[in-house]
Automatic annotation (TrEMBL):
InterPro entries: HD_domain (IPR006674). Residues 20-97 form the HD domain. It comes from the Bacteria. It comes from Tepidibacter hydrothermalis. This is HD domain-containing protein.
Amino acid sequence: MNREKAIELINTHITTPHIIKHSYAVESVMRALAKKIEPENEEMWGIAGLLHDLDNDTVDWKSDMSLHGPKTIEILKNENFGNEEMYHAICAHNPCNGTKIQNKFDRALYAADPITGFITAIALVYPDKRISSVKVKSITKRMKETRFAAGANREAMKSIEKLGIDFSDFAKLSLDAMVEIGDILGL
């Protein structure tokens, strides 16, 4: 399991530009979470973040959300890439497929997935559209505005607190991770 192969898989299976950027954003947040929670698993957590939406362009899972996750695992197994722990976390990030969150890895991916889109949405309403302009206070404030980025799963983001991480600390960790790759994100 290595990042170069994961990037090759992204480039082979995902053509939607914003999903590619989202994948890199989730990778960055997952690496930051791993450094905080399970440093020995940073590579696996990062790669899971990178690949969690690998099925985005290969299956019409939007009409059947139960396919999202299992289809990614099918792709990964066909490529002989990953392990059962990673497969479970990728499936668990989408509760619609029936996979239950069982551990820190699962919970981290479940929370990291929506916060990247949420932070991106905040950056895009700033005049300069730069991620570096976003403040943690803006993230916590916007969480209360349910009409802002209404599709962002706030329950999933807030679930990071089940790992003993305060939401504002998670917002800062996520924002800092995304700022580091702002050029890749185009923000």
